[in-house]
Each structure stands twice: as C-alpha cells, then as structure tokens.
User: Which sequence fits this backbone?
C-alpha cells in the first residue's frame, strides 16, 4: 500500500468552478501535511501547509481529517492559471517526505 | 535571489559510466534532499541530509550515493548508472517561515 494516495484525475473544470481534491495517507503517526503545485514537469512549489484546524489562503482551503486519515484541498472560483498538478505531501518523521502521485487540474475557459 | 540550483539540467549517458549531479543552495538551509520523479510513482525520496556530514537513506537509495561536505552543496552520485535510473531528479532544501522545501529546477537523466 502506498503511503500517500491521490486520485490522479484529470479534473477538467470551467473557469469559476469550485473543485476539491482528496488525499489519503497510511500512517496514523503522520505529523505534517502539505499541498504543493507542480506545473508541467517543473519543480514543485509549496501551495500551503495543512494545519489541524484547517486553513485558508485566498481561494484555497485545506482541511485535515486525522480520524479518516485524509487531507483535502478546495479551490474556489477557479482561474485558468490554476491549471497544474497538485501534490499531496506527508511526513511523520519530519525528515522523510512522502508525495502522492498528484492530481491533474485543467481549468477550461 | 534565494534559490536551489542543479547541474546539469539534462544528461544522456550510458550504462556504467559514473556521473555526478550537483546541487547547491544559497539560503543557508541545514536540510537538503534528493528526489526522483517517475510517471505513476510520483516523487520518491532518495537521500536526505540534516546537516554537514549527516546523511540518511530515503525511500529509494539503492544505486545512489550522496555527500555533504559543505552546507550549501549536496551532490548526487551514480557510481554505475543503469537504465532504470532514467528519471527526473529534484534537489530540495528546507527552511523559511513555513519550513517548506524549495526545489531546484530538476535534472532529466537518460541512461542508455
């Protein structure tokens, strides 16, 4: 079983739509969670960390559900520039990081 | 400009010919790491380093070596590359307000 699993998509949504991604993790001792964005095989870049109480950054909202061992990312009012692959990242040691395979999003005009 | 640099960006080589991919960061980060990215498998951690002279295996260390003689540099060494090491490699360093990982631009390696 993979440590981190994501639905690969692709998700094709119209501009202005709301889209949500989920990511499940296997280790209940996981302590830190992140969402990264990766454009077209370029380097991943941090989108946001995920806090236990949930957190929001503009149009992006991240949630953590420890009981069910998943994290989610909600994007509201999708823009064309949101088209990318979104990577879920989990660590339980703080030094070894486990990435999901990514969820592909295309926002259509 | 704060950044992680990798060289070379592209490399085609043959089986068994030793190679080194360099990685350097100018952010004074203590933690550095190497990943490989393959279709359907995502990014997998090869090695990481907590500080100078301290390195540890990640998820897929077989066939790779690393060294950390200076804080800013973390080279990845393939002593005898094989075709299954054909991949996209990323170096990263960690630090900053959010303790996030900053990635280099990637090195696309093909082993024939």
Assistant:
């Amino acid at each position: 079983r993979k440590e981190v699993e994501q639905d690969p998509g692709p998700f094709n949504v119209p501009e202005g739509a709301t889209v949500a991604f989920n990511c499940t993790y296997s280790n209940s001792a996981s302590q830190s969670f992140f969402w990264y964005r990766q454009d077209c095989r370029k380097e991943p870049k941090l989108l946001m960390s995920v806090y236990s109480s949930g957190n929001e950054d503009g149009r992006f909202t991240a949630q953590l559900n420890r009981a069910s061992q998943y994290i989610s990312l909600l994007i509201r009012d999708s823009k064309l520039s949101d088209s990318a692959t979104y990577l879920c990242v989990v660590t339980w040691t703080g030094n070894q990081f486990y990435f999901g395979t990514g969820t592909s999003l295309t926002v259509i005009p | 400009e704060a950044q992680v640099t990798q060289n070379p960006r592209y490399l085609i080589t043959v089986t068994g010919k030793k190679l080194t991919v360099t990685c350097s960061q100018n952010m004074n980060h203590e933690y550095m790491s190497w990943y490989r990215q393959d279709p359907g498998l995502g990014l997998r951690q090869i090695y990481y380093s907590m500080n100078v002279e301290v390195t540890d295996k990640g998820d897929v260390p077989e066939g790779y070596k690393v060294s950390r003689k200076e804080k800013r540099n973390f080279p990845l060494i393939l002593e005898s590359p094989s075709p299954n090491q054909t991949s996209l490699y990323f170096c990263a360093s960690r630090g900053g307000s959010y303790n996030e990982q900053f990635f280099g631009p990637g090195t696309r390696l093909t082993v024939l």
Remarks:
- The CA atoms of residues 1 and 26 of chain B lie 8 Å apart.
